[in-house]
Amino acid sequence: MNDWSVLGTLTAVPALDRPDLLGDPVAHALKLLDPADAALVGVAEIDPELADTAAFCAAYGSPMDGSANCVVVAGRRGEVTRYAACLVLASTRADVNGLVRKRLDARKASFAPMDDAVALTGMAYGGITPIGLPADWPVLVDPAVAATAAVVIGSGVRHSKLALPGELTARLPGAEVVEGLGR
Fold this sequence. Notes:
Layout lengths: L12 E2 L9 H9 L2 H4 L3 E4 L7 H8 L7 E10 L2 E10 L6 H8 L4 E4 L2 H8 L17 E3 L1 H4 L4 E4 L5 E5 L1 H4 L5 E3 L6
């Protein structure tokens, strides 16, 4: 039995049973996971106007410390831009200018512009998630996310949320747990 209670008052179903609630890259990536891991991921439909974490948590009774934000960071050195995704608890912020900048070997790092993040991921802004990102992107996971029993993340679209064990986030393709990522 999966524990998707982190979704508060929402009722989740196995994510692969509802591809209509997933962004295309997310549905594709879930199909590529080990079936036992994919079965650990639940999805619940939400009001897309409540997709932002604070509004979502308030409306559905989901704990802030059980929700994680996935932010896309662009690091630039000369003419080369590298991207990474950072997954941190909603109650923290990613150390973009320190740790992430160094990890990307960049002179400057910042949140990727919304249009770039959407175009490069194929996901909706406000629904970007570590599942289904471009294969060459590192997915930096804060240890606090990996340690949660269950965590809420985006689904690639604004009209649903995913719930999964925190430890699964650390085993996603491209994922690496990075001490000190969330502050």
